[in-house]
From TrEMBL:
<keyword id="KW-0106">Calcium</keyword>
<dbReference type="GO" id="GO:0005886">
    <property type="term" value="C:plasma membrane"/>
</dbReference>
<dbReference type="Pfam" id="PF03803">
    <property type="entry name" value="Scramblase"/>
</dbReference>
<keyword id="KW-0564">Palmitate</keyword>
<comment type="function">
    <text>May mediate accelerated ATP-independent bidirectional transbilayer migration of phospholipids upon binding calcium ions that results in a loss of phospholipid asymmetry in the plasma membrane.</text>
</comment>
<protein>
    <recommendedName>
        <fullName>Phospholipid scramblase</fullName>
    </recommendedName>
</protein>
<comment type="similarity">
    <text>Belongs to the phospholipid scramblase family.</text>
</comment>
<keyword id="KW-0449">Lipoprotein</keyword>
<dbReference type="InterPro" id="IPR005552">
    <property type="entry name" value="Scramblase"/>
</dbReference>
<dbReference type="GO" id="GO:0017128">
    <property type="term" value="F:phospholipid scramblase activity"/>
</dbReference>
Length: 221
Protein backbone atom coordinates (compact mmCIF):
# COMPACT_ATOMS: atom_id res chain seq x y z
CA UNK A 1 0.00 0.00 0.00
CA UNK A 2 3.00 2.31 0.21
CA UNK A 3 2.66 2.97 -3.55
CA UNK A 4 -0.94 4.13 -3.28
CA UNK A 5 -1.84 7.82 -3.62
CA UNK A 6 -2.22 9.32 -0.13
CA UNK A 7 -5.74 8.75 1.16
CA UNK A 8 -6.72 6.06 -1.34
CA UNK A 9 -5.66 3.26 1.01
CA UNK A 10 -9.25 3.45 2.30
CA UNK A 11 -10.42 2.11 -1.08
CA UNK A 12 -7.90 -0.72 -1.27
CA UNK A 13 -10.07 -3.38 0.39
CA UNK A 14 -13.48 -2.11 -0.73
CA UNK A 15 -15.65 -3.77 -3.36
CA UNK A 16 -18.66 -1.57 -2.57
CA UNK A 17 -18.82 2.20 -2.13
CA UNK A 18 -21.94 4.05 -0.99
CA UNK A 19 -22.50 7.70 -1.96
CA UNK A 20 -25.19 9.63 -0.10
CA UNK A 21 -26.09 13.20 -1.01
CA UNK A 22 -26.85 15.48 1.89
CA UNK A 23 -29.82 17.80 1.49
CA UNK A 24 -29.93 21.22 3.09
CA UNK A 25 -33.19 22.02 4.93
CA UNK A 26 -33.87 25.17 2.87
CA UNK A 27 -33.32 23.26 -0.37
CA UNK A 28 -35.71 20.51 0.72
CA UNK A 29 -38.44 23.01 1.65
CA UNK A 30 -38.12 25.58 -1.14
CA UNK A 31 -36.54 23.55 -3.90
CA UNK A 32 -33.63 25.97 -4.19
CA UNK A 33 -30.25 24.75 -5.43
CA UNK A 34 -27.17 24.91 -3.23
CA UNK A 35 -23.73 23.38 -3.61
CA UNK A 36 -24.01 19.61 -3.47
CA UNK A 37 -22.46 17.78 -0.53
CA UNK A 38 -21.93 14.03 -0.31
CA UNK A 39 -20.87 11.43 2.20
CA UNK A 40 -18.90 8.51 0.77
CA UNK A 41 -19.21 5.39 2.93
CA UNK A 42 -18.06 1.80 3.14
CA UNK A 43 -20.58 -1.11 3.13
CA UNK A 44 -20.91 -0.82 6.92
CA UNK A 45 -22.17 2.74 6.60
CA UNK A 46 -18.99 4.29 7.98
CA UNK A 47 -17.96 7.54 6.32
CA UNK A 48 -14.56 7.40 4.65
CA UNK A 49 -14.77 10.61 2.59
CA UNK A 50 -16.75 13.84 2.41
CA UNK A 51 -17.28 15.58 -0.94
CA UNK A 52 -18.27 19.18 -1.75
CA UNK A 53 -19.11 20.57 -5.17
CA UNK A 54 -17.69 23.95 -6.10
CA UNK A 55 -19.27 26.19 -8.74
CA UNK A 56 -21.05 29.50 -9.01
CA UNK A 57 -24.73 30.16 -8.45
CA UNK A 58 -24.85 31.41 -12.06
CA UNK A 59 -23.63 28.00 -13.31
CA UNK A 60 -26.19 26.11 -11.22
CA UNK A 61 -29.13 28.26 -12.33
CA UNK A 62 -28.26 28.70 -16.00
CA UNK A 63 -26.56 25.40 -16.86
CA UNK A 64 -28.11 23.10 -14.21
CA UNK A 65 -27.16 19.46 -15.06
CA UNK A 66 -24.78 20.64 -17.80
CA UNK A 67 -22.80 22.84 -15.42
CA UNK A 68 -19.07 22.71 -15.01
CA UNK A 69 -17.90 21.82 -11.53
CA UNK A 70 -15.02 20.85 -9.30
CA UNK A 71 -15.77 18.32 -6.57
CA UNK A 72 -13.24 18.16 -3.76
CA UNK A 73 -13.18 14.89 -1.82
CA UNK A 74 -11.55 14.89 1.61
CA UNK A 75 -10.91 12.14 4.14
CA UNK A 76 -12.13 12.27 7.74
CA UNK A 77 -9.05 14.26 8.72
CA UNK A 78 -10.02 17.02 6.27
CA UNK A 79 -7.20 16.23 3.82
CA UNK A 80 -8.23 16.57 0.16
CA UNK A 81 -7.42 13.25 -1.50
CA UNK A 82 -9.44 13.28 -4.75
CA UNK A 83 -10.45 16.10 -7.08
CA UNK A 84 -13.09 15.67 -9.79
CA UNK A 85 -13.18 18.26 -12.59
CA UNK A 86 -15.96 18.54 -15.14
CA UNK A 87 -15.82 21.18 -17.88
CA UNK A 88 -18.94 22.57 -19.54
CA UNK A 89 -19.81 20.12 -22.32
CA UNK A 90 -22.75 19.06 -24.49
CA UNK A 91 -25.36 16.60 -23.20
CA UNK A 92 -27.16 15.58 -26.39
CA UNK A 93 -26.87 12.47 -28.54
CA UNK A 94 -27.46 14.74 -31.55
CA UNK A 95 -24.05 16.41 -31.07
CA UNK A 96 -21.48 13.59 -30.68
CA UNK A 97 -18.50 15.89 -31.25
CA UNK A 98 -18.62 17.55 -27.82
CA UNK A 99 -19.70 14.91 -25.32
CA UNK A 100 -18.95 14.67 -21.62
CA UNK A 101 -15.43 14.20 -20.29
CA UNK A 102 -14.46 14.13 -16.63
CA UNK A 103 -10.98 14.32 -15.13
CA UNK A 104 -10.16 12.72 -11.78
CA UNK A 105 -7.03 13.64 -9.85
CA UNK A 106 -5.50 11.83 -6.89
CA UNK A 107 -3.70 13.35 -5.16
CA UNK A 108 -4.96 16.74 -6.41
CA UNK A 109 -2.77 17.84 -9.30
CA UNK A 110 -1.91 14.28 -10.37
CA UNK A 111 -4.12 12.57 -12.96
CA UNK A 112 -5.73 9.32 -11.80
CA UNK A 113 -7.92 8.82 -14.86
CA UNK A 114 -10.80 10.02 -16.99
CA UNK A 115 -14.47 9.32 -17.67
CA UNK A 116 -15.36 9.80 -21.35
CA UNK A 117 -18.88 9.65 -22.75
CA UNK A 118 -19.30 7.53 -25.89
CA UNK A 119 -21.86 8.41 -28.52
CA UNK A 120 -24.77 6.00 -28.80
CA UNK A 121 -28.29 6.76 -30.11
CA UNK A 122 -30.02 4.56 -27.54
CA UNK A 123 -27.92 3.78 -24.47
CA UNK A 124 -25.84 5.88 -22.05
CA UNK A 125 -22.25 4.71 -22.56
CA UNK A 126 -18.98 5.77 -20.97
CA UNK A 127 -15.35 4.65 -21.04
CA UNK A 128 -13.14 4.64 -17.95
CA UNK A 129 -9.54 5.54 -18.81
CA UNK A 130 -6.34 5.47 -16.76
CA UNK A 131 -3.92 8.35 -16.31
CA UNK A 132 -2.40 7.65 -19.75
CA UNK A 133 -5.84 7.84 -21.41
CA UNK A 134 -5.80 4.10 -22.07
CA UNK A 135 -9.23 2.46 -22.01
CA UNK A 136 -9.78 0.28 -18.93
CA UNK A 137 -13.52 -0.34 -18.48
CA UNK A 138 -16.90 0.46 -20.00
CA UNK A 139 -20.09 1.69 -18.30
CA UNK A 140 -23.40 1.00 -20.04
CA UNK A 141 -26.72 2.29 -18.73
CA UNK A 142 -30.33 1.32 -19.50
CA UNK A 143 -32.52 2.83 -22.22
CA UNK A 144 -34.74 4.46 -19.59
CA UNK A 145 -33.25 5.99 -16.46
CA UNK A 146 -36.43 7.26 -14.80
CA UNK A 147 -36.22 4.51 -12.17
CA UNK A 148 -39.86 4.70 -11.06
CA UNK A 149 -40.22 2.56 -7.92
CA UNK A 150 -36.97 0.69 -8.55
CA UNK A 151 -33.21 1.01 -8.63
CA UNK A 152 -31.44 2.01 -11.86
CA UNK A 153 -28.27 0.07 -12.70
CA UNK A 154 -25.41 1.19 -14.93
CA UNK A 155 -23.36 -1.94 -15.65
CA UNK A 156 -19.56 -1.85 -15.42
CA UNK A 157 -18.15 -4.05 -18.16
CA UNK A 158 -14.89 -5.23 -19.65
CA UNK A 159 -13.78 -3.48 -22.84
CA UNK A 160 -15.45 -6.13 -24.99
CA UNK A 161 -18.78 -5.05 -23.40
CA UNK A 162 -19.63 -8.74 -22.91
CA UNK A 163 -18.44 -9.37 -19.35
CA UNK A 164 -20.09 -7.51 -16.46
CA UNK A 165 -17.74 -6.97 -13.51
CA UNK A 166 -19.74 -4.49 -11.41
CA UNK A 167 -22.33 -1.75 -11.48
CA UNK A 168 -23.21 1.78 -10.43
CA UNK A 169 -26.72 1.81 -8.96
CA UNK A 170 -29.07 4.71 -8.30
CA UNK A 171 -31.15 3.56 -5.36
CA UNK A 172 -34.83 4.49 -5.44
CA UNK A 173 -35.46 6.36 -2.21
CA UNK A 174 -39.20 6.96 -2.30
CA UNK A 175 -41.71 9.24 -4.02
CA UNK A 176 -41.51 12.16 -1.58
CA UNK A 177 -37.72 12.16 -1.60
CA UNK A 178 -37.44 11.97 -5.40
CA UNK A 179 -40.06 14.65 -6.14
CA UNK A 180 -39.28 17.25 -3.50
CA UNK A 181 -35.50 17.03 -3.32
CA UNK A 182 -32.63 16.13 -5.60
CA UNK A 183 -31.01 13.88 -3.02
CA UNK A 184 -29.10 10.94 -4.44
CA UNK A 185 -28.13 7.58 -3.04
CA UNK A 186 -25.74 5.53 -5.14
CA UNK A 187 -23.85 2.30 -4.77
CA UNK A 188 -20.69 1.38 -6.66
CA UNK A 189 -19.76 -2.30 -6.90
CA UNK A 190 -16.40 -3.24 -8.40
CA UNK A 191 -13.85 -6.04 -7.95
CA UNK A 192 -11.94 -5.63 -4.70
CA UNK A 193 -8.59 -5.93 -6.53
CA UNK A 194 -9.38 -3.13 -9.00
CA UNK A 195 -6.68 -0.43 -9.04
CA UNK A 196 -7.57 2.14 -6.38
CA UNK A 197 -7.01 4.93 -8.90
CA UNK A 198 -9.70 3.43 -11.11
CA UNK A 199 -11.96 3.11 -8.05
CA UNK A 200 -11.47 6.84 -7.55
CA UNK A 201 -12.39 7.41 -11.21
CA UNK A 202 -15.52 5.32 -10.66
CA UNK A 203 -16.55 7.73 -7.91
CA UNK A 204 -16.18 10.55 -10.43
CA UNK A 205 -18.28 8.57 -12.93
CA UNK A 206 -20.99 8.25 -10.30
CA UNK A 207 -21.13 12.04 -9.84
CA UNK A 208 -21.34 12.53 -13.61
CA UNK A 209 -24.16 10.00 -13.97
CA UNK A 210 -26.04 11.67 -11.14
CA UNK A 211 -25.96 15.09 -12.80
CA UNK A 212 -26.66 13.85 -16.32
CA UNK A 213 -29.61 11.60 -15.55
CA UNK A 214 -30.98 12.25 -12.06
CA UNK A 215 -30.57 15.96 -11.31
CA UNK A 216 -33.99 17.37 -10.41
CA UNK A 217 -35.64 19.78 -8.00
CA UNK A 218 -38.77 21.82 -7.48
CA UNK A 219 -37.37 24.42 -9.88
CA UNK A 220 -38.69 22.40 -12.80
CA UNK A 221 -42.17 21.78 -11.42
Amino acid sequence: THNLPPGLEYLNQLDQIIIHQQVELLEAILGTESSSKYEIKNPLGQRVYFAVEENGCFDRKLCSPLRAFTIRIADNAGREVIRVIRPLRCNSCCFPCFLQELEVQSPPGTIAGYVVQNWDPFLPKFTIQNQSKEDVLKIIGPCATCGCFEDVDFEVKALNEMTTIGKISKYWSGFVNDVFTNTANFGIQVPVDLDVRIKAVMIGACFLIDLMFFENSLDGL
